[in-house]
Specification:
The structure is a homodimer.
Chain A: H1 2-8, H2 11-22, E1 26-27, H3 28-34, H4 40-52, E2 56-61, E3 64-69, H5 72-87, H6 89-102
Antiparallel strand pairs in A: 1-3, 2-3
Helix pairs in contact in A: 1-4
Chain B binds a DNA duplex through helix 4.
Chain lengths: 104, 104
DNA sequence: ACCATAGGCAACCAAAAGGTTGCCTGTCAA
DNA sequence: TTGACAGGCAACCTTTTGGTTGCCTATGGT
């Protein structure tokens, strides 16, 4: 799960995920067009991290490499991690509020 | 939102959040006990990032500094970002499956 | 057969992250 | 009032990260 969090920490990588969510199965070159501020190698590196985190699955076909979004890891973070915080949200908020009021 | 993602990218910081979720309003020294593998300064630095991301709110009271969890930013990520991926989950999964099958 | 296209590999570089040590300040309690 | 306790500041160091450039390989079209 650590790899997923780390992968999500970069805005460029999140942008890549968004691009794939918008249109799945894009090639490297196509993704490079969307992140025009980076060189191809830069994009490649980001994609490798995303792949290592399991967020993207790739398929080489002839001279093209297609990238597919895998939504499962994000889903797991939502379920296994974030939901714990949702659960305690109200309790934490009221504790926070109480602490801030006491500060006066 | 970028700060929140970056803050969540480190396992030590997530551990600090967990500690506060477990017991809210802990002092720096108490939190240091839970992350015994780090020095106090190390913990302080992590807490500063968490605070800058809005995930933790602090209150100095005499010679103690109390730390409170703020669940709102995590909630926002869940709602504004992750939910987009949940929405497209089935579609992305079937695209992925189709691509993998075609590979044979 | 050839050349343009799509991508990979490796070295390199600068900046940021993670962590430490040493010392200083403020606060409470005996 | 003096000492122990809680925390802050700043310098420093090492590793990781984000990015680049240069060159090499493989594939497909004409």
């Amino acid at each position: 799960m650590d790899l997923v969090f780390k992968a999500l920490a970069d805005a460029g990588r999140r942008q890549l995920l968004d691009a794939l969510r918008e249109r799945n199965g894009q090639t490297l070159s196509e993704l490079c067009d969307e992140l025009s501020e980076l060189t191809r190698q830069g994009v490649t590196k980001h994609l490798r991290l995303l792949e290592e985190a399991g967020l993207v699955v790739t398929m080489r076909r002839g001279r093209h490499k297609y990238h597919y979004l895998n939504p499962v890891p994000i889903n797991e973070i939502a379920e296994r991690w974030i939901s714990n915080y949702e659960k305690d949200k109200l309790r934490a908020l009221s504790a926070l509020k109480a602490a801030l009021e006491e500060e006066s």
